[in-house]
Amino acid sequence: MILNFITMNGYGLYVWLSFGIVFISCVVVYLKTKKTLKKYEQEFLAELKALTLEEKNKALENSKVAQQILATSSKIN
Amino acid sequence: MFKFFSSTNIYLLIEKLIKFVNSIFFLILAIGLTFALVLSPPDFLQGDAVRIMYVHVPSAWIGLSCFSLITLLSVLNFIFKIKNFYFINKSAAPIGLLFTCLAIVTGSLWGQPTWGTWWAWDARLTSMLVLMLFYILYILTFKLLKKEELIIKVSSIIAIVGSINLPIIKYSVEWWTTLHQPASIKITGSSSIHSEMLLPLMVMLLAFLLYAALIFLMKYKTEIIRIKKKNIKRN
User: Fold this and answer.
1) Domain span including residue A30
2) What is the pLDDT of residue A47?
3) What is the DSSP code string of B101-168?
4) In this complex, is the C-beta atom of B6 within 8 Å of any C-beta atom belonging to chain A?
5) pLDDT tens profile B19-42
6) Is some CB atom of chain A closer than 8 A to the CB atom of B143?
7) Do B93 and B144 contact (CB within 8 A), yes or no?
């Protein structure tokens, strides 16, 4: 039964290759997207930290996004 | 009301949405794969090769839907000048390209055991290849052009011209004699696919849609951060 499942009655190569290609492509795209997102979050944090205290407070006051990224910065690093 | 759709509010919502998608995605995928690879019956003509349908069809549908969305938002952006649509399009295009490529590759892998060939220059296959080329052109505008206004114009033109191909893909199997089978699932009218195959197909479609949503949300979040990063000193 297990052999039947693997060979798929002679179509195993096509079926497993199709599912495998889809799986690998999706994983690669997911990892690449996540890496880019983290890179931008870190760059944003670095720019925020490079500001003077006054500039930083102003930026945080005006931007909820900045507040959110700073709040989750422990997760990013 | 439109204030709700500001990038800040959307950003705050994205985090919650990503968590929600993550929480249900693997369960849906596991159910879908169990049905697709184990529980669904083999086709009486194609045998187990029919299981490729469970990855091929959702990929093709998402590839087509993404381009339809891009075209619609490009037209709306031309009329209403809503910049958010540009960012949505920029985030959706790579997903559309990924699924169009997957539809072509899995279609080729399905074609070999059923038609006896990996590829044929028939109407459905060729029009899907044209869609892939339009996606590549569309994405290249973001990579090659520098001025944002020019990117919006050029990419919108590509999307609108490319949309001519969408009805060609849909009706290619009716207008021309092709190797590709006609549509088995119809929104209007009765579908010719058995419910034992339709159910796994729908579950796999849901899993693919959740994956596409996850990638879209992450890409969209990246876009918002990119803009906020530019504006950080101006605040």
Assistant:
1) 2-76
2) 84
3) HHHHHHHHHHHHHHHS-S----HHHHHHHHHHHHHHHHHHHHHH---HHHHHHHHHHHHHHHTTHHHH
4) no
5) 999 999 999 999 999 999 999 999
6) no
7) no
* Nearest CB to B228; choose among A10, A26, A66: A66
A-interface mutation test, from B34, B48, B53, most A Cβ less than 10 A away: B48
Amino acid at B21: V
Contact A63 B55 (CB under 8 A): no
- Note the pLDDT of residue B180: 79
| pLDDT, mean of residues B94-103 | 98
Chain B residues touching A63 at Cβ < 8 A: 8, 228, 231-232, 235
Residues B225, A40: C-beta atoms closer than 8 Å? yes
Q: What is the pLDDT of residue B9?
A: 75
**CA–CA dist A42, B195 (Å, integer):** 48
Binned at pLDDT 50, 70 and 90, residue A70 comes out as low
Q: Where do the domains of chain B lie?
A: 48-230
**By the 8 A CB rule, do A40 and B226 touch?**
yes
The whole-model pTM stands at 0.90
Residue B88 backbone zone (phi > 0: left; psi -120 to 50: alpha; other: beta): alpha
The dihedral of CA B118, B120, B123, B126: what is its sign? positive
Q: How many Cβ contacts (< 8 angstroms) between chains A and B?
A: 112
ipTM: 0.90
Tell me the per-residue pLDDT of B103-141, one tens digit each, with 9 for 90 and over. 999 999 999 999 999 999 989 999 999 999 999 999 999
